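Exercise 7.
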Amino acid sequence: AALVVGPGAAVAVAIAAAVGLAAWVIVQGRLALRRLGARPAGSDFLRASHLLTELAKDLGVPVPRLWVASAEQPNALLCRAGGPSVLLTSALVEEYTRTELEAVLVHCLCRCNAKDLTHAQIASAFGGLGVRLAPAVGEDDDVMAASVTRYPPALASAIRKAVPMQPRWSPFWFVAERAPHRPVADRIALLADL
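Solution. The predicted structure, written as tokens, is:
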């Protein structure tokens, strides 16, 4: 571009491309929520909402926005959509015990720091090329969540019951089949050793 229209135009094109890439990264959470048919958790999900609020206060982190998506497969998703957001599938809310739900929410809150969310957004935006930037799911966050709940079997059970997701938003999911997730069997074995 610099040879054809001059260096000023080349800089403008580079800036426009950078802004476009940044915007693409930023919208990944909103795209995931929209694609999954997420809706804000209403009064029919008070148990999960209150539990998330109390756990966030206990951990001293901002309370993420809670979303729910109708799905027959239990799983959860953590992303940034104007701020940290946690999505629970309706199957997870209906099928999980209170201790399993608590373990999932704590796991999500442990992954809620700005660095992890930013890397997950980048990884989601660029798929296989960006997945190397995503934090590994099922290593430190599982150990940290189990140390908070002080009941590793609940998290192991929650992982075992979740249906691994395969979409391009795998860095956001609680349990997924592809990188950056550790295999389910490895995560359960790690928790069994705690």
